[in-house]
Amino acid sequence: MRAMLIGMLGLVAFACGSSGPQAFLDTDKTTIRASLDSFTVYVVQHRDSTAAAMYAENATFMPPNQGMVQGRAAILAWMKTVPPMSHFTASAIDINGRGDLAYVRGTYQVVYLAGATDHGKFLEVRRGGKDGRWLIIADIFNSDLPPAAPEMLTMFFNSRGGIRTHDPGIMSAVLSPG
Q1: Confidence (pLDDT) at 162
Q2: In angstroms, what is the C-alpha Rg of the chain?
Q3: Label partner for 123 (CA 20 to 30 A): which of 3, 61, 89, 153?
Q4: Greater confidence, 175 or 80?
Q5: 114 within 8 A of 83, measured Cβ to Cβ
């Protein structure tokens, strides 16, 4: 009987000690929102290394109309091909999670120095670290604008996805609706 009582007390103690996943706190949301705001500043300032550092080493980045980009170093290389921007905003619609895993769903708007514009949506998955940072582990975005004709795109994009011209009239015709 005594052994059974000790066993039951041990089981109760074990059950009380395993509280399951930690709650996702308002402070986590605030930290992630601040990180998103910083990311947009880094991108506009072409601080590519700082922006890429917001991704986990093994992150997956999924840009539109291209293959997946695997790893922070490859994401940094991809960022270096993006034309300069005069304005970029990313607005979180929903930030939620559980424990050390969170997602951010939102919209973005961008104006390139060449004059072209874009707007669309994104979804990020983030993992919280012991250091308090929420690194991006998966990121996908796509435009709300209709795609340009493929033959037009090859005239203006190089094989790595970089834009060949910075003529505002041409870029607006290719990347803007109507």
Answers
A1: 61
A2: 22
A3: 153
A4: 80
A5: yes
Q: State the pTM of this model.
A: 0.73
N residues, the chain: 178
Of 46, 82, 53, nearest to 66 by C-alpha is 82
Structure tokens belonging to residue 148: 């340009």
Region 76-84: mean pLDDT is: 96
**Percent of the chain as helix, strand, coil, to the nearest 5:** 35, 35, 30
- Tokens 């996805």 locate to 161
Taking alpha carbons only, the member of 140, 142, 137 closest to residue 123 is: 140
Higher pLDDT, 157 or 3: 157
Q: Which domains occur in the chain, in start order?
A: 22-144 (3.10.450.50)
The Cα 56–Cα 166 span in angstroms is 32
Give me the helices (H) in 23-111, please. 26-44, 48-52, 72-79
Alpha carbon separation from 161 to 14, 67, 81, 93, 140 (Å, rounded): 54, 11, 7, 28, 16
